[in-house]
Amino acid sequence: MPEQQWTIAATEQPPEWFIQAVKQHTPASSGIYAAQLLWQRGIKDRQQLTAFINHKAYQPANPFEFGQEMHLAITRLQQAYNIKEKIAIWGDFDADGITATSVLWDGLGQFFTQNTQLIYYIPNRLKESHGLNNQEIDHLAKQGCKLIVTCDTGSTNIEEIIYANQLGIDVIVTDHHTLPAERPPVAAIINPRYLPREHQLFNLSGVAVAYKLVQALYQSLPNIAKHPLEDLLDLVAVGLIADLVQLSGDCRYLAQMGIQRLQADFQQPAAARRRPGVGRLLELCQKSGDRPTDISFGLGPRINAVSRIQGDASFCVELLTSRDVKRCNELAEVTELANTRRKSLQKDVQAQVAQKLTQLDLSTTSVIVLEDAQWPAGVLGLVAGQVAQETGRPTILLSTEGLGTGEEFSQSPIPNTSTPFDFAQGKSLSTSPQSLARGSARSVNSVDLYQLVKDQAHLLHRFGGHPFAAGLSLLVENIPLFTAAINQQLRQSLGSTTLTPTVQADLTVTVADLGKELFLELKLLEPCGMGNPVPKLLIQNCWFENSWHRNQQDWQGKKVQYIKTEFDIRDDSSRSAFPGIWWGHYKDELPIGRCDCIAELDYNTFKKRYEIRLIAVCPSVNSARAKRPATANSTQNGLNAPLSLTPLILDWRNFPTSDSQVQTRLIASPPLLLEDCPTNWDDLRAWLRRCLTISSSQQLAIAWSKPNLQPPNQIWLTLVGIAKYLSRTNQLVTRVQLLEKIGITHQTLFVGIKALKYLGFTVKRQDRYLQITWHPSDSAENLTEAAVERFLAAVREEQFQRQYFAEVPLSTIVAIASSDNYMGTNF
Question: pTM of the entire structure?
Fold first, then answer.
């Protein structure tokens, strides 16, 4: 991967009056950090500050500021209400579309009887594209529908709207996506893109536009609705934050109000919640609903996962709106399983994309375009976004799997190379689906991806989206032409500018600054989102202690979904350490010695503690580092070769670290020393990655001894004996202490703890410590024996792997590392 570039946000000291004004909202701290952030983000007068921090001081826009179109929409809905017409809500399958559908279902449901007068339809992500289609319009006509109300979609569906009109169906469009060249033939179209860019409604997402329609109907038909309009705000907040729109104007106001409603409902007993489905989802992702990240990292991905994995996400509306606790719990479990499966698929595709990236010369690549016949289309957008962030380059991933449409943002086909494209109608006559590659594109570094793709429309079948995300399909034979053309176009527009992955820090802090006071001070900026990102904190000249990582497996206990490393961070500002977490990384990737890092300050609801979430890390500029070796050629042991020709991997397994030659090398050019025998290739690769990704790479010396293995039964008896002792003495123990005492891995210890539970042991986690108590149980003997046998089998497998790595030739290690491109730029 290209070397990451760190930047520090331009700082301008705010005036003292502004600092004091901010401090009024954060009396427990100085307010200087929040004041600095707010000032550099354009909040520079008292009125702006008050409205930004306190939603009660903000004056939201009246829904009729949409003008004539809102009046037309309400007139048509009143007509439907008076003559009891049947209405269909036409939604979309992402989180914004699902919540928008739910808002209309609950909101319009106050005026039209659900399931008889009012129904809804959500396209299948894997079989249909976004927007209207004639086949389902036919079906709605046969059911007697006279009005379709879209949400989060429909603005460019000109032909489909005309077709609906021919069948006697009117259409009200509520949307926030690209506008057509001319107003479509609809009863009304409510889209904030018609408003001036500076208008407080301009950035509304699909769910917020739907809410404004319901709000206008509440105002026009008062005293009919039985439930207050504000009951919809929690759904609005979920859709707004999950859709990553700019949280300014009414967007910020609605998100602030909605998060309050979300948290208040979650604090109720499950049976008393207005939205038991949302509450159960929060429980499953161990969130409480009081933070925007509870949505962006918890609720949003789970709602999106359903359509990515199953295609049909219709039941999500029931999950979000039903009051049936049992039914909601069932649907929440299905949603959680879909998200688990999504993580597994995403991880698989990420690994395959990483392999393909090693075949690209990123120095000559401006737009990454990769394709594969086996990639599931539903996760391509997620992976493309990650690759774009890591490489600093717009990324397009294409799949030829099945007949799914992937993430196509447009609803109409685009021509092949011989057919002109009518942008006013979003149409071409070419609809041939043969040999189509379909996929998703994500941008970075302010590159307008939508315009890039649009300029290659003559090579595409379909496309649509916005500057940072797009969906597209094209004939497979057009992929090479498309790749060359879009790369040439971006290179020409960039000129001498180099695309580099960039992380920007907002503030420089110390470990002593971290904690509750700073967290509450920075919380003034929430909800964060586009245009107001979560503050990134630069911590310099720090180091890490007590690190350990854990592999999270899928629900069948097979594939590893993700990894995470927990640690303590320290610096010279305090004698106390501060906890943190690094998602997607092994502990061995943390630099040894002093380093600099960029992190976000967070509160872990599950562990009830403040912690940092590591974003990026590199050795400190003051930390001395050995130079990268000139070659990775292998020698017998790496001790006697000239320094310029020393291998990347040194085999010191037959040389104790007290050996005089080893001591000489440790002093002259110290390598990273790996003395713990690994049990799988991933552990070894993590150390290799650590060598190659730190600045001025070091060599890796594998220096583990031949393992002294105890019989598995003896290890089990030792584990039981320690558990009894800890229960009797009421002492706490860390995982690291247990592992060192018993000599097994985290994964095997996890199996052992499961087996202990069948003997009546209870193991509770208290932050990083374990508390073990024992109440002998009457568990079935066969179940206990099976659990113990699983532990013994895990120990035997681990010992086999240790024995293998104690004897595997260095040439094999180098060959496997080289074949996986771990000696190059990508891991």
Answer: 0.73
Distance CA 143, CA 727 (A): 66
Q: Which tokens is 199 given? A: 């208008």
**The tokens of 443 are what?**
């941008």
Which residue type does 224 have? I
Antiparallel, parallel or unpaired: β 86-90 and 502-505: unpaired
**237 close to 247: Cβ distance less than 8 angstroms:** no
Instruction: List, for residues 205-216, the tens digit of each pLDDT value.
Output: 999 999 999 999
Pairing between strand 5-8 and 502-505? parallel
Provide the token pair at 127.
């079989």
Cα–Cα distance for residue pair 34/507, rounded to 1 Å: 10
Integer Rg of the chain from CA: 29
CB of 518 within 8 A of CB of 509?
yes
List own/partner pairs for 512-518 with CB under 8 A and 24 or more apart.
512/571, 512/573, 512/574, 513/33, 513/573, 514/578, 514/601, 514/610, 514/612, 515/578, 515/610, 516/28, 516/610, 517/28, 517/29, 518/29, 518/33, 518/601
Q: Of 96-105, 112-121, 180-189, 755-764, where does mean pLDDT reach its minimum?
A: 755-764
φ/ψ of 171, rounded to 5, equals -130, 130
pLDDT, mean over the chain: 83
Mean pLDDT of 655-678: 60
Sequence-ordered list of residues with C-beta below 8 angstroms from that of 369, at least 6 positions apart, any chain: 395, 396, 398, 479, 482, 483, 486, 487
Between CA 668 and CA 662 the distance in angstroms is: 10
The H or E element spanning position 539 is strand 537-553
How far apart CA 697 and CA 360 sit, in angstroms, is: 22
Tell me the C-alpha to C-alpha distance, in Å, between residue 270 and each of 324, 347, 496: 10, 33, 59
Q: How many CB atoms lie within 10 A of CB 334?
A: 14
The arithmetic mean of pLDDT across residues 95-102, rounded, is 96
Backbone angles phi, psi at 474, to 5 degrees: -155, 160
Report the relative pairing of strands 469-475 and 507-509 from DSSP bridges: unpaired
Q: Tokens for 809?
A: 């030739």
Angle (nearest 5°) at CA 574 between 572 and 578: 105
Give the per-residue pLDDT at 179. 87
DSSP state of 462: E
Max intra-chain CA distance, the chain: 96
**Alpha-carbon gap, residue 392 to 444, rounded angstroms:** 6
Residue 814's closest CA among 702, 715, 662? 702
Do 167 and 449 meet the contact criterion of CB atoms below 8 Å apart?
no
pLDDT at residue 661 above 60?
A: no
Q: What pLDDT is attached to residue 764? A: 86
Burial class (CB in 10 A: 0-12, 13-18, 19+), 714: exposed
